[in-house]
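Key result, reporting period 2: structure in, sequence out.
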């Protein structure tokens, strides 16, 4: 039975997977947090990780904390959409929760690196929107890492070295934003998301809406 739409806002839409990637300190976590707070139609993907929880982090909310045996079992059972090793710890995206949200028209936000993004693109390319966030300069990036005060100097140095590797993959993304101002960058991220939501192929109820409209015109 074909569904009848009386309001264009009611048109069914398949959710999308919105990836934000950047080197540590470029601002993607701040942008992601604000986007989630302001936009109720997108949820943060909760990653599984083998790293230890930091102060204030909650299991099942910030991350799903597991040991390496549990993580390896999830890989073997094909329960992860993507996974990668970062600074000696493993991170991955549980498949089931994401797929259910997409089917229900809910968007899912991912804070992952280029390795995870490549894996997602290979598996679910049509549902994926990739955005890379650059810092305005090397100095700003280093200053941001030092201001966080969470890592020792040798970790900051390692993150700066890894940043060059992360940035080298910028051209593999659909969009690139240079984060000089957090509010302006957030606005650009939201504008991209809004435009992607309107793509014809994602609005699975559009055919029924148009059919209903043209029937009334006959």
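The corresponding designed sequence is given below.
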């Amino acid at each position: 039975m074909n569904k009848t739409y009386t309001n264009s806002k009611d048109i069914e839409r398949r959710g999308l997977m919105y990836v934000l990637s950047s080197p540590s300190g470029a601002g993607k976590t701040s942008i992601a947090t604000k986007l989630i707070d302001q936009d109720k139609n997108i949820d943060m993907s909760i990653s599984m990780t083998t790293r230890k929880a930091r102060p204030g982090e909650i299991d099942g909310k910030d991350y799903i904390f597991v040991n390496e045996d549990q993580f390896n079992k999830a890989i073997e059972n094909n329960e992860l959409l993507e996974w990668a090793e970062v600074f000696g710890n493993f991170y991955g995206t549980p498949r089931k929760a994401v797929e259910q949200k997409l089917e229900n028209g809910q968007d899912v936000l991912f804070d992952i690196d280029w390795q995870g993004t490549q894996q997602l693109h290979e598996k679910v390319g049509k549902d994926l929107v990739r955005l890379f966030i650059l810092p305005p300069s090397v100095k700003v990036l280093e200053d941001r890492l030092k201001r966080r005060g969470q890592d020792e100097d040798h970790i900051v140095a390692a993150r700066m070295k890894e940043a060059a590797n992360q940035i080298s993959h910028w051209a593999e993304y659909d969009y690139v934003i240079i984060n000089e101002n957090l509010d302006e960058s957030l606005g650009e991220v939201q504008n991209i998301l809004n435009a992607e939501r309107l793509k014809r192929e994602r609005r699975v109820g559009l055919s029924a809406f148009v059919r209903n409209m043209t029937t009334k015109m006959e």
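Strands lie at 17-21, 42-44, 48-49, 64-65, 80-86, 89-94, 107-111, 128-134, 175-178. The chain has a mean pLDDT of 90. This case is discussed further under Risks and Mitigation.
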